[in-house]
Amino acid sequence: MQRSEAITEKMAQHPLTPVLFNWLSASPPDNLFRVNLKSLAGALLVDYRVLLSDFLQMVSAGLFNLSWEFHCTHCNAIPGFKHHFGELKSEGFCELCDLSFRNTLDKNIEVTFTAHPSFVNIPNGVVTRFREDMIQSVKERRYHMPEKFLSGLECLANEKFRELFGDQVLSTQESLAVETASFLFTDIKGSTQMYSDFGDAKSYEIVREHFKILFSAIERNNGIVVKTIGDAVMGSFLSSADALNAALAAQQEFSARQYNQAGYLKIKMGIHAGSAIVVNLNNSVDYFGNTVNLAARVQASVDDHDIRFTRRILDDVGVQGILKARRARLLHRTMQFKGINGPVDVYTLRAAAMT
Predict the structure, then answer these.
(1) CA 243 – CA 234 distance, rounded (Å)
(2) Which of 72, 77, 316, 345 could lock onto 240 through a cystine, CB 3.0 to 4.6 A?
């Protein structure tokens, strides 16, 4: 069977981006070994997230294998890889260095894609040559990770990955570090009173509709919904600008939507960014750490239908561009949060007056 025919048959329900289809049909086998999506996206002039969605579908269809490659943080070599996210370990060991290292999803874990043997046979010489060249380069101290690569966090934080491979979780004994992620927490102001006033059925109907708005805002802005806690929502993002855009989109929609007897919902939102760890909680991917705790504390401190964020968020260049474009006026406060060492500068973005 011709390659193009195999792609058409396997991807009938999920047609590929045309430029990717043409590239796959014509590329030599060597090019289908350890595909770097960031490099390919640049060559094809396509957003890497579009390619990632396509490649994940091809993994699901059996056309490609996905590899979570962990690089040694001392010499940059690749001591090993896993095809299943759940098989990753907190620490790796490099035989070339005779040293162990901590795995960090957005630093030393690279995600690549290699054609499945049933689709395209990669000659053994390609794999052997890659490994020999890598070892020689390490010995000469000139082996480096690619300047641009798809990180483990970028793959894990992709909605299509969650949709197709959401059952892949770490062992409960393992955790993976994250150098930088942004977290959005939301909650409904006065939800307890709402249940008392309107009853369980009506109130839950409102909460369910509010989830739809928040989930949509998060996903449209390249985030993922980590979990819900009661009527509160936790979302994670690769960038602070995306987190703020999601919060603004939700804030705007809630400000314009009236829920019959309940009127306008007031949503309290908090954002913070920093390091965290990825863990398995109740067979789902979850995030823990001081950054997550502070993001939750910031949200809990909000009094009204407002967005509050930390200095870490404000200092982000993308966030500054958003605020400047909106001519936003911020209310600055220095607060002390329970369980958080030292004072924290927070900035509140108030919603426009509700009609």
Answers:
(1) 11
(2) 316
Rounded Cα gap, residues 24 and 11, in angstroms: 13
Name the phi and psi angles at 196, rounded to 5: -70, -40
For 167-208, write each residue's pLDDT tens digit. 999 999 999 999 999 999 999 987 878 888 878 888 888 888
Q: Which helix (H) or strand (E) holds 306?
A: strand 306-310
pLDDT of 343-352, one tens digit each?
Answer: 999 999 987 6
Residue pair 169/176 in contact by the 8 Å Cβ criterion: no
Its CATH class, for the domain covering 173-350, is: alpha beta
Over residues 259-284, the pLDDT tens digits come to 656 566 789 999 999 999 999 999 99
Return the axis-axis angle of helices 240-256 and 317-326, rounded to nearest 10°. Answer: 30
**Do the Cβ atoms of 317 and 333 come closer than 8 Å?**
no
End-to-end Cα separation, the chain, in angstroms: 62
d(CA 224, CA 238): 10
- Between CA 299 and CA 167 the distance in angstroms is 29
Q: What are residue 41's phi and psi, to 5 degrees?
A: -60, -40
pTM: 0.92
DSSP secondary structure of 128-186: HHHHHHHHHHHHTT-----SS--BHHHHHT-HHHHHHHTT----TT--EEEEEEEEEEE
Burial of 25 (0-12, 13-18, 19+ CB in 10 A): middle
Return d(Cα 298, Cα 293) in angstroms, integer: 9
Question: Residue ranges per domain, the chain?
Answer: 3-159, 173-350
3-state SS track over 12-48: CCCCCCHHHHHHHHHCCHHHHCCECHHHHHHHHCCCH
DSSP string, 199-236: -HHHHHHHHHHHHHHHHHHHHHTT-EEEEEETTEEEEE
